[in-house]
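Observation: inputs received (chain + zinc ion).
Thought: call the complex predictor directly.
Action: predict_structure
Action Input:
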Amino acid sequence: MLENSKNILNDARMNNYAIAHFNINNLEWTRFILEECDRLKTPVILGVSESAIDYMGGYYTVANLVKSLISDLKINIPVILHLDHGKKVESCIKAIDAGFTSVMIDASTYPITENIRMTKKVVEYAKKHNVTVEAELGHVGSEADKSLIPELYTEVDAAKKFVEETKIDSLAPAIGNAHGLYNGKIELDFERIKEIAKITNVPLVLHGASYIPDDMLKKAVKSGINKVNINTELQIAWANDVKSFIEQNQDIYDPRKIIKAGEKAIKSIIKQKLEILNRN
Ligand SMILES: [Zn+2]
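Observation:
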């Protein structure tokens, strides 16, 4: 069933484990993720970026697609439909109106006062609709645009003020993590995670978790991370398998067979990640 992230993230926080957030790109990805998480009886957060929403047709298309798959495939786990990196207040409102159960407002490129103002607006609207809100403070950059610099790491005191003033449900801090591919050595600031988790008392979200080694991911969860966002690693695994399928099957033109060639890769990464993140 579709629900907001409150119960599952709070349970993860109380019991020191993390929920996986996987980004969806189309019908097949949504289906593969739902099927595998349901098979493993693990709640899942389906993240959809603004660009993925545009690609798929719009907010209502995505919300109805997810709801219909849950019903047709008889999915029994809690599913959270989450707007990933909503850059405008209006995007969050559109998502909520269409039936998303969780939204992220990402005003992290603005000064903190503007970030607080925008985030509060989203929280106010979301609460009325029983939707949970994630926000980002500091800025999770990427190696590609060279925005991964310690100056943008989340300050502990600022995090406390931010959470208290905005009343968000979860916080995405910048602690050395990055979107896309990591070029060099990955270094996460575990102490900072611990301090922010302790002072804010909300579940923390790790963005850019693709290719973070298993032991580091476990340590991040132990330090206070309760939601882990994975996108790039699934995309690359899917693309690699689809490319080799096409090379080896030059006569096949049925798009269903081509897209499905990446199913195994997606499902096996999901299984692997859930084993790392789940309580044990
Ligand atoms: Zn992100």
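Thought: report the result.
Final Answer: The pocket of zinc ion is lined by residues 85, 140, 179, 207, 229 (CB under 6 Å). Residues 6-232+268-277 form a domain with the TIM Barrel fold (CATH 3.20.20.70).
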